[in-house]
Amino acid sequence: MTEKGQILIIDSTGNRRKELCELWSGVLGYDVLCYGGSDFIRFQSNDKLKTISPDELSNIRPLACLFHVGDHSKYKNSTVKKLVDSSRRVVMFSGVGLAGPKPGWPSSWFWIPRAITGKGSASDREWRQLGDWLATQTSGSEDGGSLELLSVRKRPQFLTALYILCQGFLAAQRMPERFPVAVAETRTRDWWSVPLVKSAGENLLNIVTQEWGTEIPDSVAKLVNWIANTPGSDQTELAEIVAEAKKELESRIAK
Amino acid sequence: MLPHLLILDDLFGRVVPGGHNVDRENLCANFLWQDATGDAEANTSRQKILKPTANAVFFRAQTPVCARVGDMVENDIKATLKEVGRYWIPQGGSNASSLGGPRWTMLLLDLCFYTGLVTEESHRRTPGMPEGRPGDDRPDSYFGLTLLDAIHQAFPELPIFILSSKPREEVSLEFSRRGALGFIARDDLRGPELLEEALWNHGLLPDPNEELAGNSLPLLLALREARRAAGHRGNVLIRGERGTGKELMAHYLHRAASRDGERPFVPVNSAVFTPDLFASELFGIQPRTATGVDGKIGLIEAANSGDLFLDEIADMSPEVQAAVLRVLQERKVTPVGGRLSAPVDVRFISATNVELDDPALGFRADLLDRLRTGGSISLPRLRERLSDIPSLVAKFVCEAEAQRPGIRHREITGEVINQLIAYEWPGNIRELRSVIFDAVNRHADVEFLVPGHLRIGYDRRDGKVESQELDGWQRNRVGDRVTGEIGISELLDIQNSVKFDSREAAHWAGRLADLQLAEAKLLARYLQAALAATKRHTPGNPSGQLQIHPAIKLITGDPSITASSAADLIKRLLGPIESELDGDLLEAYNISLRLRPRKSRLTTKRN
Amino acid sequence: MGEWNELRARLSHDLVKNRLIPATSRMIKIVTGSVVADPVEIFDSTITVVWAETNPSLKFLFESCETELSPRNYFSVEPLIHCPPSTLEWLPDLIHELWLERHDVRGWCKAGSELAAGVELAISGAGNLLRESYNADEQKALVLDALLRLQGTSSGLSTHLSLIDNRFLI
Predict the structure, then answer these.
(1) What is the model's pTM?
(2) Dihedrals phi, psi of B541, to nearest 5 degrees
(3) 3-state SS of B490-530?
(4) Which domain holds residue A30?
(5) Are A54 and A134 in the same domain?
(6) Smallest CA–CA separation between B241 and chain C, in Å?
């Protein structure tokens, strides 16, 4: 094992897994282990791959685990879970989202929501910065701000969220047999407001208007006002309003 | 001469350390360009273009041009403007060191220029290219648009096209606003054809036939206007001083319009159309077998589906103007003696050396409007295109020598060019041609054309005139025997072209007007004599009727001069001394004004 | 649109449009005689090299599209991250399903993979023909055919990659 330590890479996409292994092993100088869904492999080069036995696995404590967010379900595998939990730091990568920890994740987990396709997705500088960060922190995911090169901070997208909730509502109304609980739940103000108002507070209408860019359509304003429980905004024709608002939102987001 | 293109592009302009810029090679192959950059890439090209369509010079618009791992690549507007200026001569000026050199035909500009650090990864992907910074590939911050602004401001006449693989719709408003003339998508398989069309319509291309020889910006702009006008059938007006090549320009326009096939070109001097002749000449004559009248196709019909070139339209009489206007409005002609009119598709290309918009000239405004529905082309004076003198001189020397089989071929010395550049050329290219032909004809047996061979600024008939070396101001002496052998127009041109050394301004101040007045009076004496000699005496008019046309024929010795030209000449001769006219001279002047009216008219002072 | 889209744009713009298509057009000019160059040298140093870089990335692009672009990802960020567990049990999967169907995402990925395979086949075919006896006119005609096929499939791939826009996100 090198002085730098071991990196565990969990990724079912073959090409990307291979490139990341080459990067962390050949370029950045770490011991690399990888898992694509079947065996755990020790990677030294493309020609030097060795399956790791279960006995060996139990002695391994990786410095960090690079875990593709799309393969999160593999965490349910007990062997994978054990190995991941024994890593001092877990870095989830890819997907859309905000860099940082996620509710419900262990404190050692940190998310870099950046599409990593292979070695070339980030510059050498960025990879080295990640390696340095892994080396300087013993545990915990605080101070992720030092990863500014790789971290993507996106603003919340309320229009998209609203659009998704509209889709959920309409699907539940149209398919009650499939969503027996949701059909009633989605008609409650709470179902809408819990996620939206928790993020936006009292400024939901302003935020939506700003994100829209121009004057928001009537249907969207009515829906948002009802969600925010603005006085005088009771809706008896919720289905109609939601259907109309969904169309407007779809058209706006697609621009 | 191949078009000379400048391509501003980070990908194609870079030099690859120790390797080949494959992207540049690909582009040159696809467009059949000769890489004329002169850098390492051009010199080590792995391909040869058999029939290049253009010479292409590439420039990265960034520093360093040859970037290695660890280098920071930054955009460089200053260096770019310097590169653009390298083969560009500002209009109105001449750069002696670049006289006759290549000029950019067009500039092709990329939109997105990547900047920042060249890392191992970015170098691996594309040698010499940096990682790029946020914003480099955002449409609202494309460096290409910033460059477009700067270049268009510094070189407003330089035609610029966008050549990019970015989507056109991202920038279609901005590139037009900032001065680019169009957009060619780099991945468009029709790229070479689109570029050819762009060069035709917007590029600064010289005349390949070299009839309008030269590479100066004013000439190239005029040629471009002609090519643009050739794309439609609208009537075109060509303006320019005498001797600037208006008929040649009409030919050029016609040839440009006839690329797809032969169309007729019928040239006409408008002054030919006297009130008696114009109808039959323009419209033709219907054959009448009963009376034995032979038919004749008129000039307009002869030009059907092609171009009718009307030269000197300022000389058109009011009757002819009205007839031409009718044809332009109705697009039909009726031959003299005929009843049926026939539709015609004729483009009128007209030429003039005066400002027809001036109401004093009496040219119909409605006719003028119709004669320029397809636009106007202004031909520059020779003194506005001095950088063309070397090529013009070379051309005229060849032509003059070709007319004299066996004559020695001569080289043109630099001192000759300098001398020719110093002169004002009131007669423009025709005058230059005369000077060169005169020099070649009088000095047939020499190998070099030197300043001493040139007679510039006066009549060149042997034995009648003398000249002195030009030394900063011209001294013209006219021989003692001023007869009809020297044209009156030339005499007036000489008078108008006298230049005074500014160092002797105090001596000459106020003297020019006196000189001109004296000369006008002298000429008036000769006219008076001619008027008296050509009076028509009849029993009813024993004192004789003035005939200005025969009088002018007598003093000019030119039997083909038209009545309207005669009237013009009298106006020019007598205009400066208008206030002193009386008798026959006054009457002749009044007749001329009636024939060729202008605003003010002189009233009879005495009987 | 995120880094997946940056990759897509880079593949479409930098590699296919800027490299593969121009290199193919250049080869056509060489084979038809407008440009004099060693055809095998140029083919190997341009088309073969750029495809070696492009192909793996294309494979990744089509394999990962569903994961990377799925609107399910919006439940990992504000504001939908605050949805209660009962909602998270059904809504993300439903949204994903609706998205798949609305844009025929799997169809797009499959078509893209097929186009990439077509380009690969065209490159392989043209390369093999070039290495055989190239000088005979008949052989040249075959090579030209193969290159025109490559040009067509590359253009198709480029167009396919450009089909993704903002509407694909939701």
Answers:
(1) 0.68
(2) -140, 70
(3) HHHHHHHHCCCCHHHHHHHCCHHHHHHHHHHHHHHHHHHHH
(4) 6-147
(5) yes
(6) 45
- The Cα B266–Cα B263 span in angstroms is 10
Residue spans per domain, chain B: 4-202, 217-380, 383-508, 512-595
Domain B383-508 has CATH 1.10.8.60: yes
DSSP labels, A38-96? S-EEEEEETTEEEEPPHHHHHT---SEEEEEGGGGGGGGSHHHHHHHHHSSEEEEE-SS
Distance (Å) from the alpha carbon of B64 to chain A's nearest alpha carbon: 21
Burial class of C167 by CB neighbour count within 10 A (0 to 12, 13 to 18, 19+):
middle
Q: Which of residues 12-71 of A touch C (CB under 8 A)?
A: 13, 15-16, 69-70
Is B121's Cβ below 8 Å from some Cβ in A? yes
DSSP string, B523-571: HHHHHHHHHHHT-EEETTEEEEE--HHHHHHHHHT-TT--HHHHHHHHH
Q: What is the ipTM of this complex?
A: 0.85
Q: Show Cβ contacts of residue B221 under 8 Å, excluding neighbours closer than 6 positions.
A: B157, B204
The answer to whether B125 contacts A120, with C-beta atoms less than 8 Å apart, is: yes
**CATH architecture of the domain formed by B217-380:** 3-Layer(aba) Sandwich (3.40)
User: Distance between CA atoms of B35 and B29, rounded to whole angstroms?
Assistant: 10
| pLDDT by position in tens, chain C (length 170) | 467 887 888 888 888 888 999 999 999 999 999 999 999 999 999 999 999 988 988 998 999 888 888 888 888 877 898 899 899 999 999 999 999 999 999 999 999 999 999 999 999 999 999 888 666 677 888 899 999 999 999 999 998 998 887 777 77
Considering the domain boundaries, does residue A11 fall inside one? yes
